[in-house]
Design brief:
3-stranded antiparallel β-sheet, 5 helices, 22% strand
């Protein structure tokens, strides 16, 4: 990647998602939180001071990469254009509705869209993909609330989730 492209990407360490996805009923958490604290807030507090998290404005990035592990299975999640807060046509910069975004993409008109892409070679585990997307979107929401609330508008509902089909290595002919 060029230096300019590198500036548009942030890659979290492999430990980040493990901390982010820890069960909110984990016994070590109970004494540190006020009763009634939401699970997404607990998870955010667990990672908010993670190395580099305070040095990087993730909303300035086009892509945020999360290597993920769940039950000894690795997969990848990428948050795309989180600050965009929806979808735009790349040629005009026009804001598009979700339906317009899909129809433009289907007609090969390039679009940019706020989303979380989940790359997983195991197709049958929809709950892992849903859970990962949920954790990442709520992390973005909590990061926005904690650091950037007055700078721009951000709505978690504008970030869609897409599971990307990935072939396991055994499907390749080498």
């Amino acid at each position: 990647m060029t230096a300019e492209q590198q500036q548009k990407v942030h890659i979290y360490s492999t430990h980040f998602y493990r901390y982010l996805s820890t069960n909110s009923n984990f016994p070590g958490w109970t004494e540190n939180f006020v009763k009634g604290t939401k699970a997404s807030e607990k998870r955010y507090l667990r990672v908010k001071d993670f190395p580099c998290n305070n040095e990087v404005n993730i909303f300035e990035k086009d892509f945020i990469v999360f290597p993920c592990i769940s039950n000894d299975h690795w997969f990848l999640a990428i948050a795309c254009f989180p600050k965009l807060n929806g979808c735009i046509a790349m040629d005009t910069g026009e804001r598009l509705s979700e339906d317009e975004c899909v129809s433009n993409a289907d007609s090969n008109r390039p679009v940019k869209m706020s989303c979380v892409l989940i790359f997983d070679s195991v197709k049958a585990n929809a709950s892992r993909k849903t859970t990962a997307s949920h954790h990442i979107k709520h992390f973005l929401e909590q990061e926005y609330i904690a650091k950037y609330q007055d700078e721009f508008k951000f709505e978690i509902k504008e970030i869609k989730t897409n599971a990307v089909s990935v072939s396991p290595l055994s499907d390749f002919p080498f």
